[in-house]
Design goal:
This protein is mostly helical. The protein has seven helices and no strands.
Length: 123
């Protein structure tokens, strides 16, 4: 009787599919902690951290804006934010409500003014 060379590959495939299935079940149970970025977050802990930490517009811009505005925020798909010809009110409305391909709600409402101030410093 000869060994079938496909059997080990089938076993590895089945093990991989099973592992993905069980990991996804674990992820469903832990989705809030995963979304918060730490494995042991509690509702009270994240609220306290958020209240005590200051909004860093530059860091948020590097996380959320570079995909469209480029790594140096000088434009790519989105416009160049350096020398933007819009005033603070227009920028606030764009960040809050979105424009074109830019979705609304990327920046929390309480931090929009800080982001506008940061963009205006890029001029």
């Amino acid at each position: 009787m000869s060994k079938n060379p496909v059997i080990p590959y089938i076993l590895i495939f089945a093990l991989g599919i099973g592992l993905i299935f069980f990991m996804s079940l674990y992820g469903i149970d832990q989705k809030k902690e995963i979304a918060d970025g730490d494995g042991e977050a509690t509702e009270e802990g994240t609220k306290e951290e958020g209240a005590s930490s200051e909004f860093d517009a530059e860091a948020v811009a590097q996380q959320k804006c570079i995909g469209c505005h480029g790594g140096d925020l000088k434009g790519s798909v989105g416009p160049n934010l350096h020398g933007e010809d819009k005033d603070a009110k227009e920028l606030h409305e764009i960040i809050k409500n979105g424009k074109g391909g830019m979705p609304a709600g990327l920046i929390p409402d309480e931090n929009i003014d800080d982001m506008v101030d940061y963009i205006l410093t890029l001029k």
